[in-house]
């Protein structure tokens, strides 16, 4: 069975930390591919600063030349908030031979009970939780209560946490500072060419 990693997020913008997570999980869990899925609009966050099209374009530039990584427009094309349960069910319908592995940061795992139909998410996909600075990677009781086999379907990946945030990158762009240390060159060039984040001040809209 095809083992498919599902990596959702705003990716506003995608950065080297996201890529490090995808590559590490790909190898550690013997996945065939990791699918980057930019959300049109996260139900739990304010609106992204870059458009869905720009964020998908940056993802595709960041992973160019890596055949095991793929950018998907599945959430970008679906109107309204991007609920992960809808994404997983659509992927399951499109790729019935795939075994799905949802990649989450430890912070997102802790928020999982607030997600729409969280128990159904655990039924549709196994979860790989990766460290986030300042967050425990232990599985909270409220998360284990979501599914009778949650302890078997949630896997903790012990990679070193990557301390890069998209909010910090946006703030750098707003100040006209270089961001090459945090994003691939192709992404930095895209941000510069399209003037992304330059006129939005230094406010933070989410940590990843």
Short description:
This protein has about 210 residues and is an alpha/beta fold. About 40% of the residues lie in helices and about 15% in strands.
Describe the protein.
There is one protein chain. This protein is α/β, with parallel strands linked by helices and 208 residues long. It has one domain (2-163): HUPs (Rossmann fold). The chain is built from 10 helices and 6 strands. It has a 6-stranded parallel sheet, sandwiched between helices. The longest helix has 13 residues, at 16-28. Mean pLDDT is 92; it is low at 202-208.
List the helices and strands and how they pair.
Blueprint lengths: L1 E8 L6 H13 L4 E6 L13 H11 L6 E3 L2 H4 L6 H11 L3 E8 H6 L6 H7 L1 E5 L10 H4 L5 H4 E3 L9 H9 L10 H10 L14
Parallel strand pairs: 1-2, 1-4, 2-3, 4-5, 5-6
The N- to C-terminal Cα distance equals: 31 Å
The CATH class is: Alpha Beta
Q: How many domain modules?
A: 1
* Strand residue content: 15-25%
Top keywords for this entry?
single chain, 208 residues, alpha/beta, Rossmann fold, 38% helix, globular
